[in-house]
Design goal:
Pfam families: CBF (PF03914). One of its GO terms (cellular component) is small-subunit processome. Keywords: Membrane, Transmembrane, Transmembrane helix. Residues 1-14, 22-31 have a biased composition (Polar residues). The protein is mainly α. Among the domains are: 1-162; 452-590, no CATH class. The protein is built from 26 helices and no strands. It has helices at residues 10-21, 33-50, 56-64, 71-90, 105-131, 138-159, 164-176, 194-205, 209-223, 226-231, 235-243, 279-286, 288-297, 333-337, 340-354, 372-388, 399-408, 410-427, 434-440, 452-462, 470-483, 489-505, 511-514, 543-547, 554-560, 582-590. Helix 16 (372-388) runs parallel beside helix 18 (410-427), helix 17 runs antiparallel to helix 18 and helix 22 (489-505) packs parallel to helix 25 (554-560). The radius of gyration is 35 Å and the shape is elongated.
Amino acid sequence: MAKRPTSQPQQNFTVKRRKVSNGKSKASSSKDPIAEVVRLEKLVEDALASNTSLNPIADLLLIASDTEGEDEVVVKAIFALYRIFVQIARKNLLVTTEKQDTETEEDKAQRSVIRSWISGKLDAFSELLCSLLKDEDKSIRASSLKLLFSLLREISAAQKAFDVKYFKKIVFALLTCPSSHRNSDDGESPEIDTDVRDQFCDNWLNTHVDVRWYFLRETSMILNNRAVLDKNPFVVANAIAILEKLQNIPKPSSKSVLDGLDGNNFWVECLATVPKRSKDAEKDDGDDEEDDKAEDDAEEDDWRKFFDEDTKPTISTGKTPARRHRRVHAMNIHEQLHSIQAHRAVFTKCWLTLLPLLSTSQSKTHGDKADPRDALVIRVLDIMHHSILPHLTRPILVMDWIAGCVDYGGIVGLLALNALFVLITEYNLDYPRFYTKLYSFLDRDVLHFKHQARFFRLLERFLSSSHLPLTLLASFLKRLARLSLSTSPAAIIPTIPFTYNLLKTHPALMVLIHRAAEDGTDDPFNPSESDPTQTCALESSLWELQSHTSHYHPVVATLARVFSEAFTKPGYNMEDFLDHTYGTLFTTEAKRTIKGTPALQIESNNRAGVLSDSNTQLPVLKGTLFC
């Protein structure tokens, strides 16, 4: 018969809880709290060695939770608690072992009470660490996150599986950012701190595939919870802040989920072993056609089936047999962690859950005020073409959301056009009115907003194809030239080299600068026409650019004269002209070195008027305007 454990009997737990609830702990009133932490940790270590009471854990939690505690004391307490729970996990006090199955019912009940009490204290400790992620002290935030993940590894190792329940608390804390009990500022922003975000991404999210997979899955579940979103409106912003830093998502061409990573990239080491495929799984793979028919008739379907990629066998070459990929919904968790297909599926699920929360359909209801969601939409569109679309199982699934952003207009619509262009050119999306939409963005505001440089980069990319009709290209050049008449020199400067490069690429457009008008009054160009193929721009000329040769700004006037010269110069590098602003233009003029003495209408007298260094007084000007 197994020896009955004596650690943490139920009676001691009840008495201790009553004492703590009736007033401050003895530890919190100690003159030397650091020494008290050391003493309590030693008591727990001795208790673990002798199977006696673990009640000092509660006192350590009180010290760590003290709102008036010094930073050094808090750090000392949380590290002491961490070491204690590591020992508890390694002693298997949080799980049921095979040896414990042979104990009597009384022993099992006693162990169950102990396990329940320890689990409660572990929950309290993890919640404390989660709240410290918003602490005012940066070192405490960093230590708390490190301890949270270190405990995750120890607890999961004891269970020989990823502790999902514990990890959910970490993800929830990262997305909701609960306020620290030690902070005095009640108006603290519930946004994730940059240092916490970067530490999480650099040390775990982008380096360990199991953490990445579970984070994406849990994030999509939280984003699906309307009650959580209503209570924590910054969840979406925090999710975007983390996801925009996500890297190393496996591509379809990758050989393994570990491609691009170094070393053992599973945080829970027991998951690093590649799962063996059972005979039942191989049999299931051979019956895909029958499974497809049965799945179509099923009333309820696993969400993972929606993200399954094509399961047709790959074409074999030589003696290598064709391989058939298993469906994601048919894999267990361990298999999914090692499946590129499963990682792409959970990534797609997360983004398809997030994007509808950024819908722009009701953004216009804010009137003249900027919708706070616009900034989030812009951040997503910034990374859409290079960090999101290539990793989706079906990039075409985000077409409706992107099209809605295009219709929204402004910088949001312009960035959405970039993502839409990628879908058209790389994923065979049919969107015949793309250039009509792009033409509609060329209005009086487009050359005045702060994203002017990005606009020219995108416009250069969209019009780079040699298969575009001349009527379309002429309309864009004519519209830009017309807009340049009423814009700043900083916007005219990139317009001229952009036009020059396009004329060099399409020599047939040279007629726009060599046409001589019969009378100098009529311009066949129709600026009110929304269809760029019906504006009659090809029958017009770029007289607007010629007018800039008389511009007051010398840089603009010099650039505009390039159209009067032979087109023998190579194309301009647009990056050299995209950073001009009023500030840069003023700085250039202010620092300009005068090579020669400026010509004066009258003879200069250095000792006359305001230039005199004597006390000579200026004559008083008097006239009718001064009376």
